[in-house]
Amino acid sequence: MPAxxxxxxxxxEKRYREARSASEKLRYLEEMxxxxxxxxxxxxxxxDLRRRISQLKDLGRSRHGPGRRAPAYLVEKEGVGQVAxxxxxxxxxxxxxxxxxxxxxxxxxxxxSTRTPLAGMMRFENVQVQLLDTPPLGDDYLEPWFPDLLRRxxxxxxxxxxxxxxxxxxxxxxxxxASYQLAPRPQDGSPAAPGVATRPSLLIFNKADxxxxxxxxxxxxxxxxxxxxxxxxxxxxxxGLQPLxxxxxxxxxxxxxxTRAPGKAANFNSPFVVPAGATVLELAARIHQDIxxxxxxxxxxxxxxxxxxxxxxxxxxxxxxxxxxxx
Length: 327
Ligand SMILES: Nc1nc2c(ncn2[C@@H]2O[C@H](COP(=O)(O)OP(=O)(O)OP(=O)(O)O)[C@@H](O)[C@H]2O)c(=O)[nH]1
Ligand SMILES: [Mg+2]
Prior knowledge:
This protein has helices at residues 7-18, 22-35, 43-63, 93-100, 146-152, 166-179, 214-225, 241-251, 280-287, 289-294; strands spanning 82-86, 118-124, 127-133, 155-160, 182-184, 197-199, 201-205, 230-232, 254-259, 272-275, 297-301, 309-311, 322-326. It is α/β, with parallel strands linked by helices and 327 residues long.
């Protein structure tokens, strides 16, 4: 039996998916439950919403009292994607988290100050990307959960900084990753070694302010860029962070599209964010399976199409497309 959910429901559901905190998510779930018409066709959905609500409530409880369920390192993913800031001790990972998000990590002059991961939300234009500050990846002891955290992340930002030689820092990091069968994804599209999991990665060359000589800085950047895309910044001096935000979002390889109802304007503050290469049909499925099932065609306003061009269900969405779904 079709659920026949009102359009308002999907609006709230979209906000739920984009919500940044557990309490926000909880509020939207409860709103969805209230809006949802109650009949036989919605029973499964109702049970599902109730289950998600109670899970979130449990999560809220476990943060306080004893008997917590989720270990502290298991950070709930929020926003359009998660980028882990990883690197040797004292390179400024926590400082970057503080500079790019509202999170307030511990920052100290001495190394090994970060002991557990901490997440923060980085705004880039109209989306939020989750950044994850992590303990240093040194030569010695590594927390047993660290490889799992690395695998769960959608992408990695490797944070290097002077005075150490950045290329040596990078090679040290790659060695640690390799010992867990992990590697930054090669930028030339070449395949990774068999059995090795890769993540899209970039290098952040932090504390660039400590290298006031532009020639020296350029020398390092050139060397690093042969390995991975590299961004020179100063977290402390607030330098180069704007382009870094864009690069961190682009690392996730997502496109932002906007839906509109016939004759109405699109809401450009609130994109649907889908993997690059996703089709109109996948967008419809993201909104609701019923809509995907009934989808006949779409009209697209975008850079690669003419105004309101009629496209089929397998049309691949491009960044910035405005889409009108026709059922
Ligand atoms: N000069 C300069 N110092 C910086 C910059 N970013 C961070 N620092 C300093 O470097 C030191 C270490 O910064 P953190 O952010 O704690 O470094 P971290 O990588 O999180 O360190 P661990 O958690 O120990 O691995 C602090 O004294 C920061 O103030 C920068 O861009 N320039
Ligand atoms: Mg730190």
